[in-house]
Amino acid sequence: MRDRPVLLLLDTSAILDYTHQSIHVGEVMTEVTNDGGMVGLPVLCLVEAKRASASTELLDLLVAHQATTVLPVAADTWQALAVTYDTVGRLDLAAAVLAATETGGFILTAQPQLYAGLEDGGPIIPIPPS
After folding, report:
1. What is the pLDDT of residue 2?
2. CA angle, residues 44, 31, 63, in degrees to nearest 5
3. Contact at 8 Å (CB) between 60 and 16?
4. How confident is the model over 108-122, as pLDDT tens digits?
5. Is 92 exposed, middle or buried (0-12, 13-18, 19+ CB in 10 A)?
6. Which residue ranges in the chain fall short of pLDDT 50?
7. In angstroms, rounded to a whole number, what is the distance separating the alpha carbons of residues 81 and 63?
8. pLDDT score of 55
9. What angle do the packed helices 56-64 and 12-19 form, to 10 degrees?
10. Largest Cα–Cα distance in the chain?
């Protein structure tokens, strides 16, 4: 159970950057922790990252990290998930958007263009290119 607010969510691209040991993801995670918050990991983003990553060890470390919490998709949000899926075109990203809406957090992403269909571009923090 988490006792701190989720201030940031990692989408699939940010999770993959973490597995490639991106300093940008690590720095933002440290800032969130220093601000008393947690980093949310939408479960569907983890699933997609697992499919795309050879580094299960680093995914396991991320999930077990003291600053992270895995966020499920609630069954009663299926209609909102479907509408958001139509907007962003990917189920994992739709789950990240719903999680951001529910927590009030921002989504860290290496692919901000995928969220362009959201009002005002969504609650996005782009990862700088390496």
Report:
1. 64
2. 30
3. no
4. 999 999 999 999 888
5. buried
6. 1
7. 23
8. 77
9. 110
10. 39
Q: All domains of the chain, ordered by start, with CATH?
A: 6-117 (3.40.50.1010)
3-state secondary structure the chain: CCCCCEEEEECHHHHHHHHCCCHHHHHHHHHHHHCCCEEEEEHHHHHHHHHHCCCHHHHHHHHHCCCEEEECCCHHHHHHHHHHHHHHCCHHHHHHHHHHHHHCCEEEECCHHHHCCCHHHCCEEECCCC
User: What CA–CA distance (Å, rounded) separates 85 from 58?
Assistant: 28
Number of residues that this document lists for the chain = 130
What pLDDT, on the 0 to 100 scale, is given for residue 1? 45
pLDDT number for residue 31: 95
Tokens of 81: 């998930």
Query: Among residues 13, 78, 8, 12, which one has the least CA distance to residue 38?
Result: 8
Give the pairing type, strands 38-42 and 124-126. Answer: unpaired
Edge-to-edge strands, sheet with 106-109? 68-71, 38-42, 6-10, 106-109, 124-126
Query: Which tokens go with 125?
Result: 């923090």
